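Next up, sample data:
>
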Amino acid sequence: MKGERAQDMPQPDAAYPWLLPSAVMEPRAGGGGARRTARDWAVDIVCLAFAAFVGLLAADDAQAAAVPDWALLADQIAGAAACAALWLRRRWPTELAVALAAVSAVSPCAAGAMLVAAFTVAVHRPFRAVAVAGGLAMISQPIQAVIRPDPGLGFMGASAIGALLVLTMIGWGMFVRSRRQLVLSLRERAVRAEAEAELRAERAQRLARESIAREMHDVLAHRLSLLCVHAGALEYRPDAPPAEMARATGVIRASAHQALQDLREVIGVLRAPEGGAGSEGVPGAGSGPGADRPQPTLAALEELLDESRQAGMAVRLDQRVIDPLLVPAATGRTAYRIVQEALTNARKHAPGAEVGVVVGGSPEEGLTVLVTNPAGASGGTSVPGSGQGLIGLTERATLAGGRLEHGPAPDGGFRVRGWLPWPV
C-alpha cells in the first residue's frame, strides 16, 4: 500500500514547475522545446540585454584602440550573432558555451554572450560539463588579450579581468543550481511527509475499526450463544407449558433482533470509508446516531449475569469490589468483556454447569476477575467455538497492562483468571 501511495504522490517537478529549469525539461514531441513561461521570457530578455551591453562596451573599447573598420564590423556582426544564438542556450547549453568560448577568443563583442552561456551551463548541467565549458572560457581570455590587445590594461590585466568575470558567472550559476536543488529537495520531503502522515492516519483508522469489530464480535457471539441455549431448550422440551414456550420464543426473537443489529454494525465498521462516514451506530466509531452509545463497565456486570440467568444458566457472583462505579471505565470494560466471553464459552462447552464469577481488588492491588465452571452436564447442547475470543481477550488484557490466564481447572472444569491494573 505504501508503494501505491508513493506512486500517487505529486512529484516536485510537476507540482512546482517554476522551480524546474527549462533547460532540463524534456523536449516536446515534434522538435519543439519545452513551453516557455513568463518567467523564462523575462530571464531570456535580461540575459540578452546583459550580453548586448557587454558587447557594446567591447565595441567602444575597440574603437578607442583604433581597430580597423573591417575588423570592428566583423566583431560587431559576430557579437550580434552570438547574442542571437543565446536563444538555443536552454536546449544545447554546453555546446553553445563551447562554441561561444571559441568565438569570444577572436571577437570581444561576443564575450557577453559567452558569459551568459557559461552561466547557463553552471545552472543546468553537472560539474563535468561546467568544468569543460568553464575551462575553455578561461583559455579564451588570454588568447583574446593577444589577438585584440587592450592598450589600457595590457595582457595581464585583460586576462585577469576576463578570467575573473568567467569565474564570477560560473560561481553564480553553481550557487543558483544548488539553491534550486535544495528547494526541490525540501519540497519533495514536504510532499513525502504529507503522504506518510496520511498513511499513518489511515492505518490508525483501520486499526481502530478492527478493534471495534473485534469487540462487536464478542458481543455477537454472546447473543448467538443465548439463541442456541433457548433453541436447545425448546428442542429438548417440546412438552413445556405454553407460558414458558412463549417466554423462550420471546427471548429468542429479542436476541435474534439484537444479534442482527450487532452484525449490521460489524459490517458497517468493516465497510466504512477512511473518514468514518459509514460507522454509524458503532461505539467509538465517530459521529452517528449510535456513536455515543455508552460502553459497558463493571457496574453493568449484574445485568449481564441476569441476562445469562434468564437463558437458563446458573451463575453465582461474588462481588468483592466495594463500589464498582469507582473502577476506571477502561479497566471495568475489559473486566466486563472477560466475564462476557467466559459466560459465552461456558454456555458453548459446559451447558448446565454452574458458573462462578469472583470480582475483587483495590487501587493498590489491581482488579482480579475469576470465572470457573465444572465439566458440563451430559446431554446438553454444545456449540462449536474457534477459540478466537480468548485470544482476543488475552491481547486486550496485555494491552491494558494486565494479564489473562485460561485453561482446564484441577476438578475437570475450566477456569479464566485475569488481572488488570487499577489506575488512580
Summary: The first strand starts at residue 315 and ends at 319.
